[in-house]
Here is the input.
Amino acid sequence: MAFVDSIRKSFSRHRRRDVTESGAAEATSGDGGGGARSSGDSITCVVTMLDESEASFEIEKSSTVSDLLGDVSNLLSLQEMDYFGFSYEDDEGLKCWLHDYKSVAKQMPGHPPYRFTFGVKFYVADPSQLREDVTRYQFCLQLRSDLYKGRVVCNSEELSELAALSLQSELGDFDDSMHVDGYERNYEFVPNQEGMNIYNHIVELHKEQDGLLPFEAELRLLNIMHGLKGYGVRAFVCADGRGHSLRVDISHKGLVVNQAETSQPTYSWRSVVKISHRRKKLTCKFHSEGERPNTVTLHFPSKRAAKEAWKSILEHHDFFSMELPAPKPKFISSVLRGSTFRYSGRTQYQIKRMEDFQIRPKQNINRKGSVRRKPPQRSASSAST
Here is the structure.
């Protein structure tokens, strides 16, 4: 059965709890507080969405991540779920992604209620590949977050244009009667933007977007951001055999090993010959045309970090370069040495050739509150009390 159909049918097996007006789920507890607790054969999962609201789901203990993605698919009316996933931050500060075919309970540390974040796992190489406005909107939310957190790098002109497009998407055309002087200062696009002297330019560019519909503004934003440095990159800090600091960047393009901020060549996913890890060490072997394979050995600060990087490399390799996901091996292959882990979802090749995709009328999207707002300023009198 097709992935979209399977995750939508999974919704009938689970009960989504009511979400409060603020977006956070109401929690009930038999111990007088502390959040919802799981009992019997069910567990509670609290998911932070890309608009920073929260939704709580009651699922069976045996439910897989794919089952829970089905609940989120229905909540957000998302069909193109292959790009998304759930992640959490472990006690080392490492971002860990949950894997679709495993149960939620077996992957989460600690005890329920489990808390994790919904987000983009695989950043599409070409935004035009996204078929629906609602998917592009979720990508925009992710990229605005990436921009704010410094994961994507841009200059002041690019930032001004991205800010103007974000305002056009949420507020619509500039209106003198509504958008009074200083309205643009209520929104945060990057930290410390006050000292960048870009506000007047943002307003000018917002006025130039007159007549641009929200989905058109979001598509323009995606087209700009997918060409910026840091787009879709998952970075890991590691070292070479001599102890020199390195940073490994994993993205749709392939693998880049950076040293001392110097520009390094990208190893494309199709050039990967073998990837293996043992304890804190990860070894990558790449095919070089006309030369012997190039081997790169990376040393990570912990076994957990090495394994998470290894899994991320394998998943990106399969998603972006394979026609079909690799079947679960009956024996340990040379590529998957030490584990039977594999990517279990649909590949980019399969997504492009989807025949079961349901063409739907445009979905209603509530964009209000989608752009990060500055926290209210405390007055001098309230600050002194």
Observations:
- The radius of gyration is 22 Å.
